[in-house]
């Protein structure tokens, strides 16, 4: 059989092959070539040995073949069937994002997470990203959803409802529209200083901190010495004046006792002087 030019295959190749095997006298090779299958697959369908059972699909009713084309093929076993009208490619219409049934129960959790973490994202963006309706989004936002008590905000990426790239793109677009990105960029300050200048500034700051710490330590030591001297003076009955120079001006307790003894001996010496004279 001469090789036919490349042509589209039927919309449902196995189902079409099953119908042609059951309702026409075409050879297995003709059917296999027209449906884009291996001849052994067609033979297994004819012998009822195929692993899967297919319901036949009429290519004549679908407009993919004509009765005249089938008749010509039955009369000439070397004839290659020609597609009368290529099947229309099935494309998904616009609408909410498709979500597998096993993940649909996680949608409210993902919606609640976006509403809490990124309030700038619009309902239309959430609807397109998660694959839900605006009524559901509004009910979760207003806490009127029938299952609101069991809804726990969870990252939709973790739940498998969208990819991280898709979420980042939606958030960035919403932030730009809300002016959040511009404000954030305006607050960023560019540090144009060289590494040398930064190091010098760090060393200066460290030196100033050390000087300040040493001064504070000296003040604390002076205060402790003053308090100690104050306690000792109070124990010896000496009046204390609250001044900073108390520690330097107040004599030690031993000096106070010696001074008191000299003062007591002084009158006796004065009394002796007139007698001697």
Question: How would you explain this protein's 3D organization?
Answer:
The chain is 58% helix and 0% strand. The termini are far apart. It is elongated and about 135 Å long. Helix 2 crosses helix 3. It has 13 helices and no strands. With 277 residues, the protein is mostly helical. It has 3 domains: 63 residues, no CATH class; 87 residues, no CATH class; 64 residues.
Structural topology:
Elements: H1 13-23, H2 28-35, H3 39-46, H4 67-75, H5 107-117, H6 123-131, H7 134-141, H8 156-159, H9 164-178, H10 180-187, H11 195-235, H12 246-249, H13 253-276
Look at the helices and sheets and give the structural class.
mainly alpha
| Strand/helix succession | HHHHHHHHHHHHH
Largest sheet: none
Strand element count: 0
Percent of residues in helical segments? 55-70%
What distance separates the N and C termini? 165 Å
Radius of gyration, CA atoms, in whole angstroms: 50 Å
Give the overall pLDDT as a whole number. Answer: 78
Number of helices: 13
Q: Please tell me the total number of domains.
A: 3
Q: Are there runs of 5+ residues with pLDDT below 50, and where?
A: 182-190, 244-257, 263-277
Give the CA-based shape: elongated
